[in-house]
Design goal:
Helix content: 25-40%
Structural class: alpha/beta
Number of helices: 13
Strand content: 5-15%
Bound molecules: pyridoxal-5'-phosphate
Largest sheet: 7 strands, mixed
Number of strands: 13
Length: 408
């Protein structure tokens, strides 16, 4: 049995403790929603203030040239590529995940003009599913929805692109990127992976696995801030044939040539659409700096250890009163643990009132994320303790916890 004192010892011995010290979290809060929005760093305010007062305030329009604003999409892309097992020119940071899925799905379909089918994961994150439907409708393609496990053994001989989230947003199940990618390629299809719940917590090796395309957001385990720009990965072998359906001027070969017709820029600059939101890049750069020396294997091991500690404590205190939705095997699980309970919404609200911040996904799933860059072992222990208190004491039955918020 693990005691709270054991957890204090584990925190003291944790080599990632120095990384946690770089994050600014409110005292008395156990923050388990880093899979939805990571916290700021202790330098975020200073870096954003410097940006506003010095760069924007003094350099004004020259900031585009002199402060690297225009280069931010590819510059931050180079930093992210290192963390995704990709080469430096293969990642660009721009737009939202939603917009990037749209762009890369269209690009994939154009790279396979003779194929009539898009294969998409069933029960994927809604934005991914909605865009698959929209792109298929506008390109006159059919959608074939498969469980990720079935994608690995399906025949993809008539398929343009196979689209799947690496880590499932609700269950945290890790899907088999190697096998699904190989199966897609065997049929001549491309693959598009959504890494939103992987980057920063689960190791990803895009080049080694021969992945074609990927997208993901940076405000979850990468802590980039609310609305931080997302990213696109495109394997270098596809750069020549890559077309962006959103032919914006900043993806043009010579934006300041103001030519009357579109010509794509070299490399992934062509995936940039319009003017980047510079403060959002400043916030993301600050977050990436804070975790630059944290090895992803070490982060992943810690996330698994925290999850195991939490699951063990929940089992010990609550037995079968909550149902494990996530895979039991920690290597098959991303950064969060999903538990189901008929009153899951109310329980999450009661926990928030105690300063334990998780979230809820309809119909009955409570998510508790273990962001390894800032979470402590004591957090995992305390979360299980408070969850058990809320359930044993039926604290969640207080009617105020039943009031539904728009963001859950
Ligand atoms: C979080 C998440 C998104 C979010 O998309 P936005 O455009 O940033 O709102 C998309 N897909 C998946 C799988 C996600 O987990």
């Amino acid at each position: 049995m693990t005691t709270r004192d054991d957890c204090v010892e584990l925190d003291l011995a944790d080599p990632l403790g120095r990384v946690r010290d770089r994050f600014a979290l409110p005292a008395g809060t156990v923050y388990l929603a880093g899979n939805s929005l990571g916290p700021p760093t202790v330098h975020s305010t200073e870096r954003l203030t410097d940006f506003a007062s010095l760069q924007w305030g003094h350099h004004l329009v020259a900031g585009w040239r002199n402060d690297g604003w225009m280069d931010a999409p590819l510059q931050l892309g180079r930093q992210l590529a290192l963390r995704l097992g990709a080469s430096p020119g293969e990642v660009v940071v721009c737009d939202s995940t939603t917009v990037n899925i749209y762009k890369l799905l269209h690009a994939a379909v154009r790279m396979r003009p003779d194929r009539r089918v898009i294969v998409a994961a069933d029960e994927d994150f809604p934005t991914d599913s909605y865009l698959v439907d929209s792109v298929a409708a506008s390109a006159g393609l059919q959608v074939r929805r498969l469980a990720p496990a079935a994608m690995a053994s399906a025949d993809h001989g008539d398929v343009a692109v196979v689209v799947c989230s690496h880590v499932h947003f609700r269950t945290a199940e890790v899907h088999d990127m190697a096998t699904i990618t190989t199966a897609a390629h065997a049929g001549g299809a491309l693959v598009l992976w959504d890494l939103s719940h992987s980057a920063g917590v689960v190791p990803v090796q895009l080049t080694a696995l021969d992945v074609d395309l990927a997208v993901g957001c940076t405000y979850k385990y990468l802590n980039g801030g609310p609305g931080a720009p997302a990213y696109c990965f495109v394997a270098e072998r596809h750069h020549e044939s890559l077309s962006n359906p959103l032919t914006g001027w900043l993806g043009h070969a010579v934006p300041f040539g103001f030519e009357p017709t579109y010509r794509p820029a070299a490399g992934l600059q062509r995936l940039v659409t319009g003017t980047p939101s510079v403060p959002a890049y400043v916030a993301l750069a600050t977050a990436l700096d804070a975790t630059a020396d944290a090895d992803i294997e070490v982060l992943h091991r810690k996330a698994m250890a925290l999850g195991e500690l939490f699951v063990g404590e929940v089992r010990r205190r609550l037995g079968e009163q909550v149902r494990m939705v996530s895979p039991v095997d920690p290597t098959r699980r991303g950064g969060h643990v999903a538990l189901a309970h008929a009153c899951g919404y109310e329980i999450v609200q009661a926990l928030i009132a105690r300063g334990v911040i998780g979230d809820f996904r309809a119909p009955d799933v409570m998510r508790f994320a273990f962001s390894p860059s800032f979470q402590r072992y004591t957090d995992a222990f305390d979360a299980a303790y408070h969850l058990a208190e809320v359930i044993h004491g039926e604290e969640y039955r207080d009617p105020s916890f039943a009031v539904r918020q728009t963001v859950t």
